[in-house]
Amino acid sequence: MSESTYVQTELSKEEYRHFKSLAQEKGLSLTAALREATEVWMEKQEQVDPDDPLFEILEQLDQESEPDIPHTNAATEEDLIEEWSGETVDIQFSDSSSSEE
User: For the whole prediction, is pTM greater than 0.85?
Assistant: First the structure.
């Protein structure tokens, strides 16, 4: 069993009544309802923030035009392609003209 830590908080009487009522409607104990509420809150905190500056950078990149000549650090086109040296004995091509549509 994993190690646990106890957490305590205060609620107003109205918040407590409302929370207890919701927990009962779902058939949950207060402890189970608090655990579920904590999990939901933590998941929400981990969601993507649309105001993150990263999105501004991505938007700027989308607006920039691409260069007419692509840039690469490869000296030749062959540097970009690895030659396949395998055999073609086991390769079979399907005949798409005989398939039913």
Answer: no
